[in-house]
Amino acid sequence: AQPRIAARTCRPAAWPAALLAFAGACGGHVGQVIARDGADRLMFQLVFGIDPAFAADADGFGFGDLARNPRLRIGRRATLMAPVADQVALDPETRSRAPIYAELFEPYEIGFNIQVVLHREPDLLVRASISRSGARGPFEAEDLTTLEALSPYVQAAARQQLLAEGRAVEGLLAAAEAAGAPLFVLNRIGRLLAVSSAALGLLSRNGPFRAEAGGLVAKGGASRELEAAITAGLQAWAGGPFPAPQQVFVQDERGRWGFKVTTLAPKAFSLVSEPAVIVMGDADPLGIDPRVLHAAYGLGLAEAEVAQMLATAASPSMTGTSGRPAS
């Protein structure tokens, strides 16, 4: 398991295999990574090694709801890097009273679970977990020992992933700041990751945008157009068709503003801070050298060229990313 987890630090697409190896080494067969924000809203979750039908059924049973899923409450209060098994944290009576155990966890053979918090900050909680069937019984002491030994490698992989995603956001912001362009950066579930200096004033009480439920909303008549354009981009990250950039016009007391909603190339794997969709206003072309972004933010030269063209309001078709890009 350790080599596969270490390989993930170099290849994001190796996350599924790494989590499954982690689960198998610790006596389980299902691996999961999940993130919640500071308001306990679900930001992202991936579950590997389980029937694909689980995702649809999980929503109906409140898998992402703190009130209905005791396992989420365990993760919320767990100490950083201290594994917690639900067989220890929850007494049998509590398990029997929670419908999610009998109606979801047992049918999908994830009746027992161990989780560990990998990363905690005021606005972000990332944890990993492993599960196995009720028929196999509770996890053994040696399973916990193995999980404790392997967890630092999973934590290192998660932190490196978050760091890489953060640097991609920094590169986009650097290009926007250099051009003085208003820029909003959203992740794969539509949460605002970053806002450029020029965009901050547009989120004011009298501005044309507002932040709502962690996302970006346009005021007035442009709200539907912006929502549709952002939704199309998010669907591309969920496996849907890749949309062309959409032009949206918003208005406030200062005048009319033109913004382009652009979907970035979907990645094979990301946690919560990979930029997925950007909403960017007009900018003055400054001819930013992509090599500067490459050196300062670790972007590949192709990515740096995309950031440079976005900052100078060049058409995305010039970047060679029209149609569905390679991940």
What descriptive keywords fit this protein?
single chain; 327 residues; alpha+beta; five-stranded antiparallel beta sheet; 12 helices; 22% strand; disordered C terminus
Describe this structure in words.
Mean pLDDT is 80; it is low at 284-289 and 312-327. This protein is of the alpha+beta class and 327 residues long. It has helices at 2-8, 15-25, 54-60, 70-77, 86-89, 92-97, 99-105, 141-179, 197-200, 223-237, 290-297, 301-311, and strands at residues 30-37, 42-48, 84-85, 112-121, 124-132, 183-186, 192-195, 209-212, 215-218, 246-252, 255-263, 277-281.
Detail the topology: elements first, then pairings.
Elements: H1 2-8, H2 15-25, E1 30-37, E2 42-48, H3 54-60, H4 70-77, E3 84-85, H5 86-89, H6 92-97, H7 99-105, E4 112-121, E5 124-132, H8 141-179, E6 183-186, E7 192-195, H9 197-200, E8 209-212, E9 215-218, H10 223-237, E10 246-252, E11 255-263, E12 277-281, H11 290-297, H12 301-311
Antiparallel strand pairs: 1-2, 1-5, 3-4, 4-5, 6-7, 6-12, 8-9, 10-11, 11-12
Helix pairs in contact: 1-2, 1-8, 2-8, 8-11, 8-12, 11-12
